[in-house]
């Protein structure tokens, strides 16, 4: 059924203006003043902003990790995402050395197909580069529309790839039109520091952070950026947590290397001291890279403001405290890394960023939606409010005040890392391709209604690529 969203203030990455939006057959069909149509359902957005649906470029839903599986799957995870104003997620599909890539992709389709309530896509992990992988990559891009490859530079003996694999992946990505993503930490050095800590009996959660220093992230980020320059390729650095990594990204961009940087809410809002919470509660705050000393937060905020960092991912990878995080009692290396964030990503950036004057309203839309859609080949279908785009819309109350709590969150884990943090602003209603998923803060969507998105090659959407590199 046709819908008209009336009286809202439309905010895109470029503009802020008052207009009505008409939606029909999943798409935005008209934007204008005083729209009317007797056959349309009228939705009053007075007093609210209307944003393009958020795009979360970094999720790990139902992902095996550290002997367990992340708690939120494509059903609970995407319902929570929708509550938080996100209407598209791009999840990381893990692969196994020596096994066909298609097997992993099929496994990820099986996990998501009947569960996701919003549209979704996959990145593909590359753990080795050989003739067999080279043969398989063209069909990954052409048939599956997966145009981003992830290489881990950390997690030694688990996910970590060597520099040859990274470099060859960059070369192939250049040839095929894909974007290479890196988890940039020096896994070898970290492994050595971890062994030394354990030998000394340093087993508490705080040692997770102390054995993964900012230098290890800065070094890996710089190495990946230099290799990108050498291959004349394109790089996206996930979950940037510290000044050391920001400096390397800025340096590379100044040289003209195509390097894009993402940060996450936890690095903007939380700090290393959380890992020292008593009764093993520090385990709730174990991420890799780890939370940093507070001084790094200003650097990250400033980098978002200046465009040195371009996007915000959630790195959603949730585990219960009881039964999952506590696998690491007595040995911090056994704490599964990650946390429940998908629901609070957009609100935290609005509240801590826009409301506190650190970034503009339009930058907020760019960082949580538009720039991500452009980077990953789904713009302008996703990431903006324009005629012809998918009607993925968030009606957002900018003034409501609330306190984040596990009691009111929709993620599956038994805690919320932002518990007790006060935020201003919340999505009221959310539409995915013209249908309500969230209406008046209640989930009204349909399980399995999300579509799988095949994405364009990197740079195929030329105009958006040019914009991408303007700081
Ligand atoms: N980041 C994290 O701690 N967990 C998720 C896996 C990853 O992104 O490295
Ligand atoms: Zn990572
Ligand atoms: Zn991640």
UniProtKB/TrEMBL annotation:
SUPFAM superfamilies linked to this entry: Composite domain of metallo-dependent hydrolases (SSF51338), Metallo-dependent hydrolases (SSF51556)
GO MF assignments: dihydropyrimidinase activity; metal ion binding
KW Hydrolase (keyword) present: yes
Keywords associated with the record: Hydrolase, Metal-binding
Residue span(s) of domain Amidohydrolase-related: 49-437
CDD domains documented for this protein: D-HYD
Cofactor(s), names only, from the UniProt record: Zn(2+)
GO CC list: cytosol
Iron-sulfur among keywords: no
EC number: 3.5.2.2
Gene3D superfamilies: Metal-dependent hydrolases, Urease, subunit C, domain 1
Chain positions found as N6-carboxylysine: 150
Sequence similarity: Belongs to the metallo-dependent hydrolases superfamily. Hydantoinase/dihydropyrimidinase family.
This protein's name: Dihydropyrimidinase
């Amino acid at each position: 059924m046709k819908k008209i969203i009336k009286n809202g203030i439309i905010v895109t990455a470029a503009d802020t203006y008052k207009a009505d939006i008409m939606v029909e057959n999943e798409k935005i069909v008209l934007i204008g003043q005083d729209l009317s149509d007797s056959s349309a359902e009228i939705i009053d957005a007075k007093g609210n902003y209307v944003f393009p649906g958020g795009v979360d470029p970094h999720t790990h839903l139902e992902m095996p990790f550290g002997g367990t599986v992340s708690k939120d799957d494509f059903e609970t995870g995407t319902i929570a995402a929708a509550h938080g104003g996100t209407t598209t997620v791009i999840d990381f599909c893990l692969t196994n050395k020596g096994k066909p890539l298609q097997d992993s992709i099929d496994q990820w389709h099986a996990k998501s197909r009947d569960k996701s309530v919003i549209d979704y896509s996959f990145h593909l992990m590359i753990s080795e580069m050989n003739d067999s992988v080279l043969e398989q990559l063209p069909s990954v891009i052409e048939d599956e529309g997966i145009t981003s490859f992830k290489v881990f530079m950390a997690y030694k003996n688990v996910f970590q790839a060597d520099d040859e694999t990274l470099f060859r992946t960059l070369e192939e990505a250049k040839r095929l039109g894909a974007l290479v993503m890196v988890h940039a930490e020096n896994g070898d050095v970290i492994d050595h520091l971890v062994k030394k800590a354990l030998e000394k009996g340093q087993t508490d959660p705080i040692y997770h952070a102390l054995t993964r220093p900012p230098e290890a992230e800065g070094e890996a980020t710089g190495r990946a950026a230099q290799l990108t320059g050498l291959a004349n390729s394109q790089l996206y650095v996930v979950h940037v947590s510290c000044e050391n990594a920001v400096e390397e990204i800025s340096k590379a961009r100044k040289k003209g290397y195509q390097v894009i940087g993402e940060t996450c809410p936890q690095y903007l809002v939380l700090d290393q001291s959380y890992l020292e919470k008593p009764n093993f509660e520090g385990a709730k705050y174990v991420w890799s890279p780890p939370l940093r000393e507070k001084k790094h937060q200003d650097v990250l905020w400033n980098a978002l403001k200046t465009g040195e960092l371009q996007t915000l991912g959630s790195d959603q990878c949730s585990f219960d405290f009881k039964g999952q995080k506590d696998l690491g009692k007595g040995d911090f290396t056994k704490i599964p890394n990650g946390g429940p964030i998908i629901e609070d990503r957009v609100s935290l950036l609005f509240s801590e960023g826009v409301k506190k004057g650190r970034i503009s309203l339009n930058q907020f839309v760019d960082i949580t939606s538009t720039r991500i859609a452009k980077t990953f080949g789904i713009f302008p279908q996703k990431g903006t409010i324009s005629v012809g785009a998918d009607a993925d819309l968030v009606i957002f109350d900018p003034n409501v005040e609330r306190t984040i709590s596990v009691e009111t969150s929709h993620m599956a884990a038994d805690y919320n890392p932002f518990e007790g943090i006060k935020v201003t602003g919340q999505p009221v209603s959310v539409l995915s391709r013209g249908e309500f998923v969230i209406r008046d803060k209640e989930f009204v969507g349909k399980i399995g209604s999300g579509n799988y998105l095949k994405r364009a090659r990197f740079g195929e959407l030329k105009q958006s690529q040019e914009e991408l590199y303007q700081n």
